Every structure is written in structure tokens, then in C-alpha cells.
Amino acid sequence: MNFEKVIFGFFILLAATLNFGFFVGAIDDPAHHDIYELFAALVVSLVATMLKFGDRTQIGAIHLATSLVADLQLLAAALVWGYAAHISGNDPLTAAQTARVVSLSGGAFFANAVSVTILIAETIMQRR
Amino acid sequence: MPGEPIPSSTARQYSVFLMIMRRLRAPLILLIAIIALSVLGLTLAAGPVVDGETTYLSFFHAFYFISYTATTIGFGEIPYEFSNQQRLWVLFCIYMSAIGWAYTLGTVFTLLADRNLQQAIAVVRFSRAVRRIAEPFYLVCGYGETGRLICQALDRRGFRVVVVESNETHASEVDFYSYTTDVPTLTADAHNPDTLQHAGLTHRNCVGVIALTDSDAANLAISITARLLAPRLPTLARAATRETAANMAAFGTTHIINPFEKFGHTLALALHAPAAWQLLNLLTGLPGSTIERLREPPRGNWILCGHGRFGRLMINALDTEAIPVTIIDRQPQNDIHHRWVQSDATNPTALEAAGIDDAAGLVACTSSDIDNLSIAVTARELNKNLFVILRQNHYANRALFHAFDSDITVVPSKIIAHECLAVLSTPLLAPFLAVIRDRDEEWCTRMLDRLTRRMGWTVPEIWSERINLSHAPALYRHLMRGETITIDQLLHSHANRYEYIGCEVLYMARDSDDPLVIPAANTPIRPGDELLLAGRPGARNKFDLNISNEHALSYILTGDDLRESWLWNVLVRQWKRHTTRTSPEP
């Protein structure tokens, strides 16, 4: 067992699960989507990106790309939330604003799902 | 399994970036974790009570606050004065972030000071500089004394140079000499084919490879690499031993230079045919420099000090001319054919024992410059008329050798440099020099007289010219129209066609015929001919204009100035017709 691989898999999976946790629920109901979960998803996603830096293989490059996409989407979601809550001044968010934040995180979830798929495929390919 | 692709320089650039990212992974993750933890804690800490309700910082405000606190900007507490609970947490955050930044910056500075990284960045920069070269350039491996001389001469001739040198001190000397163009320099081992590729071996503008490192093995490796990866490029290599030279020749190295052997041949020629030797000196000297008419090496007893690699070649040269040699060396006798004095040659008694009083010549060729000078000075004191050949091992000692008036000073680095330049700039010179070696004394004397009468004892500029559309467009068009143009016609000045431009055609190579040596003045030129010319400084430009410019050429051929424009042409034609009608030519 390789401890580095455990950490790597842990963060990728955690990024996906947190993202899923935030995303699931009625898309326009602010009560279903906790901001702390978005925060956690974003932080874990950033850490996962850092872990993927510096791998020169083809799969490593795709891994990094999916993570960058997820980061971008989650950052966009966080920005939309920040704008809605503080600049528009609606706290809690309106249904339309919630839907915007959640749909952006939905995109990130897709990228994270791809990342997890690659992780699984890579593991199966190695047969060890 | 497919072969591993040769890493291109973009791939290398990418891997430098990846290396930086890998090293920065830990500090960046730590920084993210610290900021995330700080922000999270700040949103959870209970703030002051406003309007009877406990306020909490939102993520937006918390992130804003941490951003300016962690970067030590510090705008104060927003949106309300903090509660003590929040302040307690901020206290933690400040110290944590300070540690995070210190760690990150420390890693960054360690990384920047890393020799491997610096080398990787140097390689990337170097190969980028090489890739962008848009002019023809030479790849010079080894920037020692010889390399420096060659790079400087190539630079003066308007060629670009790329240098690969394994010794860092030598490589840094490139910066001290002010080249007219930028000289990309890499400190790396030229053994490695990758290094040579980064240095532009396979670049389309690379016009030649010159291997001049101190080690024969490296020079051989460079020749082989060049032969395999860039088979069309001319390769010049220095070889210290015969074995290396043979090995290089087997690999098709274009030109192999062994300075000692080269000088051995020169000495043999000087003893055998002094006029040919003088002529050779005149033609292979540094262009523009004045050479004196050298004293010819006398026949008689010779003394040789230092029985090394060079010494043995000198003895061979003297033996072929049946000149008796006495050898002085510290080693016990290992040569039964010659008189041997086992002693230190710097010692006057040793010189006397070797018969310095009635000796005709002395060769001081130990591997120490100071010893050689000391021998020569002592010997000259004992015998004023002695002909002295000095071996100068280091170019840096030139001032000392200049002060002592020897008859010939052998500087290996200079021999190699001259040979390289002659081969590179004038490929026809080598066959012409071979012809000189074969001709008799009388021919050489006449030739020498003729050249020195025209150009004095200044080393002429020697160059080759091929008569084709790209090098001599005007002349080529005239020839293709079936005109007969002789060599003599081309050597006139385009400023005044009754004057010569001061150059001579020495050799003429033709595709379908035997080459002509000193072709007669009325030899007609054919398209595709290649000429070897010698001329006074500046003659080359004039000759180039003669054969490439239509106006200059038609003026020297017919005496007529061509008109530039169509309108002017028409007017002149009208005027000519008019004048011929009214006043017919006498």
C-alpha cells in the first residue's frame, strides 16, 4: 500500500463527495444547499489540484485538467454567492440566485465525477 | 516498444515548469489549508451583539479579512469591531499565516538557488536562443584557446556562433569578449547528443560543426553524433593522436586537424622547398597581417629538446630530409638512430654536449613554455646564428614569445584556427595548397614573386566564388546568352575599366574538366565554374559587384553605362539614332 496514493485518492474522492453533497437537493431551495459545504468542496478541490501538479504522464495531465475545471466552476459558484449575498444584499438567497450557484456547482460535480472515473480506471488498469 | 521520443525544447520547458510545481506542492497545500482553516474558524466565531443578535462573519467577509491579514496589509476589523472570541481566533490566524508564508518563500528561494533548476533554465534559454537564429551559424564545441580564436574570426566574418563548453570558467569568457552578435553559450558536456541537438546540430541554419575540445574522446563523439544526426554538415575535428584521426576519418569527418602533424609537414616542406613554404605562409596567414620574408631553415646539424609527441614528428620531418639530429631529453635514450644527450636542456652544458657551437638549428619543443624559452635564450647566447623553432603551448604566453625573436613559433591553437577558417571559408584552398606542395621550387618562386609584386607581403584575402545564378546573377545571365567572357575582363575595376581591382585567380574548378591552376588571363569562364581568388583587402567586394551587378558588369565588358529606367533608355536610343543619322561615325 502506498500512502501517497491513499492521500491522493482521499482528496479526489472527498472533493467529489462534498461537491455532490452541496449539489443534491431542490435546485432553487436555499435550505437544501449549505454554504459551508460549498466552502469545503472548494478548499478540498484546490488541495486536490495541488496534489495533481507535477505528474508528467498523459493521465496526470487529464487529472489536472478536470481539477482545474472543477476549481473554476466552484470559484464561479462562490463568487455568485458572494455577489448575491453581499452586493445584491439578499440573505438568504432568492430562488433564482440559489439555482445559479447550485447549477455552477453541478458543472463542477461533473468534472469531479470524471476525475473519480479516471482514478478508478487507472487503478483497474494497473491490476495490482 | 517504440523508441523514446527525443525531448524537444518545449517539452523541456514544460518539464522545468512541472519541476517547479512539484517542489511548490507542499507549501501551496499548506497555504491553502491555513487560509481555509482561518476563514472557516472566523465564520464560526461569535461576533459582537448588534441589535440584540449575535453577528457572525460571512464567508465573504471572513475571506476578505483573512486575505488582508495574512498578507500583512491589515485594514482593521469589519464589518463591526470584533468580539474577543473572534480576536482570539485571529491571533491564531496571524501566526499560522506567518508560518505558511515563511515556509512558502523559503521553498521558493531554495528552489531558485538550486543548481539543477538553474541549469535546466539555462538549457531552456539557450535552446530557445539557438532556435531563433535566422542566419547561418557554426556550432563550436570547446571554447579553449583555439575555440576562442575561431569564434572571434567567424564573428568578424559575419557568421553567428553557438558555443558548447564543459568548463564553466572557459564558458564564462564568452561574455568578456565583445562579439558583434549574441553568442549563445551552454555549459554542458558535448559528449551528449541531446546537448548537441539543443545547440542546433539539426537546426536548418547550422552550416558546420567544429569539435575542438581538449579530449579526443569528446571530439570523436561529436564527430560521430554530427555524422549520424546531420550527415550533410561539414565537420571539423581536432585530433591529438593518429588513432583518433583514423577513427574520425572512418566516420567521414570532413576535416581532421592534428596541429603537430600539420606543423611536421610544414617543417619538412620548409626544409625541402623553401619557396613553396613561403608561398604557403603567405596564403594561409591571417588576412591583412604583414608577414616578413622568413629566414629559410638551414641544413646542417640540428638539436631537438624534448622527445615528446611533437618532438617525434619533428624528428620524422628532419629524417626525411636526411638532416642529422641530436636529441636532448631528461628521459634515458629510447631512440637508437639518433645521438642522445640525457640531461635537462635548460642547462648550457647539455647544449654544449649536443654540439650547439656548430649546430644549424634548434627545436625547443618541451611541454613547458618557460623551459622552451629558457632553452632558446641560452642556445642563442651560445650560437648567434642558430635557427630557432619554438613550441608555444599556451596562447596566453604570446607576449613572452613575441619578445624573443625566434624564427618560427609553433602555436598549436593558431595552427588549428587558421586551418579551420581556411577550410570553412574557402573550400578550394586545400586542393590549391596540395598543388603547391607538388610543384617544383622554380614554379613556387615565380608564383611568390608574382603575388608579392601585386600585393606586397601582406597576407591577401583568399576566397572562393561559384559562378551560378545565386552568387553571380549578372555574369551567369551573360554567360547563358552565349557570350565569351574571360577571367581578365572580370578583374577590371567598375570605377575605371582600364584599371585592375588587385586580385588574382589562383585556381579554377570545373565540373566536367580538370581544375586549372593559375588559369591564363584569356581563359573563358563557364557557368558552374568555381574560382579561388586572392586579392588585396577590399578587392573581394569589388569583384562581387562585378559579377553580381548588371550595370557594373556591362560597364567593364563594353564601357557603356546602362540606363536605369525605360524612359531614359528610349530617349537615349532616340538620341543615338538621331546623332548617327546626322553625323555618321568616322
Describe this entry's structure for a reader:
The complex is a heterodimer of chains A (128) and B (586). With 128 residues, chain A is mainly α. Chain A is built from four helices and no strands. Chain A is elongated. The mean pLDDT of chain A is 90. Chain B folds into four domains: 9-113, Helix Hairpins (Orthogonal Bundle), CATH 1.10.287; 133-257, NAD(P)-binding Rossmann-like Domain (Rossmann fold), CATH 3.40.50; 265-431, NAD(P)-binding Rossmann-like Domain (Rossmann fold), CATH 3.40.50.720; 460-586, Alpha-Beta Plaits (2-Layer Sandwich), CATH 3.30.70.1450. Chain B has 586 residues and is α/β, with parallel strands linked by helices.
Compact summary:
The complex is a heterodimer of chains A (128) and B (586). Chain A is built from four helices and no strands. Chain A is mainly α and 128 residues long.
What key attributes describe this structure?
heterodimer; A: 128 residues; mainly alpha; 4 helices; 0% strand; elongated; B: alpha/beta; Helix Hairpins; Rossmann fold; six-stranded parallel β-sheet; disordered N terminus
Please give the share of residues in helix of chain B. Answer: 40-55%
What would you say the CATH architecture of the largest domain in chain B is?
3-Layer(aba) Sandwich
| Shape annotation of chain B | flat
Residue share in β-strands of chain A? under 5%
Structural class of chain B: alpha/beta
User: What's the name of the CATH homologous superfamily of the largest domain in chain B?
Assistant: NAD(P)-binding Rossmann-like Domain
Strand tally of chain A: 0
- Count of separate structural domains of chain B: 4
Question: Secondary-structure element sequence of chain A?
Answer: HHHH
Largest interface: A-B, 18 and 19 residues
Oligomer: heterodimer
The fraction of residues assigned to DSSP E strands of chain B is 5-15%
